[in-house]
Amino acid sequence: MLDRSRELLYALVAVVFITIVYFLMLTLTRGIPAASSFYGHSMGILGFVLMLMTESLYTLRKRRKNARWGKMARWLEFHIFTGIVGPYLVLLHSSWKFNGLAGVVMLLTGVIVASGFIGRYIYTAVPRTSDGIELSLAEIEARITALDEQISHPSGSVLTADEIQRLTRQRGNLHRQAGRVVMMRSLLALWHTVHIPIGMGLFALAFLHAGAAIYFATLLH
């Protein structure tokens, strides 16, 4: 689960390191690295690759729920990490020039990153297993039924007052989780209807931008 926000810490460390390297380049070249320079291209390519990984790898893993190649929670952490570091590299690649197609790409990148943070908040509010798999409403209701049965018809020895209180608290928590599942699923559905089309538009324009940069900067020379 994303209870410690370590992926945000890793992303912050990476951003700080990239920023230090960027300022070293500013000092050495005495100017902002151009997007068409070797360093600028390197940042753009690496950032774009990370963004592609953000868009594809977690979605692929999510569709393979029974796969054994890593827990869903770890893949989500990687998804968030690349979703922060990749756009930051693309921002530095832009040389702080936001005109034309590149400007539109950067605008959509900012929107998709902001949307991603909103999605992360909604995601963490949905009850999940330790593997990051979303609990269904039926699973939660089944647990409530089992607790009701345990409280009403205990097997073996008679339940003490402390045990009844503990089981009652668990049942109350499950009822709250059930209500949260319904609400957060609705919010996630709404979020997906906004986030996914923006992401598709972003990558369509990003591929167009990359193709134009290769054509004008390489093939015409």
Shape label: elongated
Rg, Å, rounded: 24 Å
Uncertain stretches? none
Described by strand count, sense and barrel closure, the largest sheet is: none
The helix fraction, in percent, is over 70%
Determine the strand fraction and express it as a percent band: under 5%
Could you characterize what this model shows?
With 221 residues, this protein is an all-alpha fold. The chain has one domain (6-134, 192-219). It contains six helices and no strands. It has helices at 6-29, 38-62, 72-93, 100-125, 137-152, 161-219. α2 (38-62) runs antiparallel to α3 (72-93), α4 packs antiparallel against α6 and α5 packs antiparallel against α6. The longest helix is centred in the C-terminal third of the chain and has 59 residues, at 161-219. It is elongated and about 80 Å long. The mean pLDDT is 78.
